[in-house]
Specification:
about 100 residues, alpha+beta, two-stranded antiparallel ribbon, 3 helices, about 45% helix, rod-shaped
Amino acid sequence: MHLDVTPRLHHDGLVRTTLTLEPDVQRLVEDEMHRRRAGMKTVVNEALRQALTSRLPVADYEPPVHHSGLAPGVDPLRLNQLADELEDEELTARLSMSRGLTTS
């Protein structure tokens, strides 16, 4: 079902709005029109107004805290990189010592 809203002035031009209702919503609107003996415009406007202004306030979302046991600033996704760097430093130090070189 398509509802064409009466054209109105908007930014110095006429605007026509078409609203497409799904079959179940169309039936609800028609039932409400018959129950209240009101026109489609009245039923749709009042239903939309009520639905859009009666929203419950949404509480701010606070994610749960996860305690990982790692010190702040330690990225668990880069621990392998850290292990590789430490291993490289140790290997370099051993090679330098075996050759009689000092590391700075």
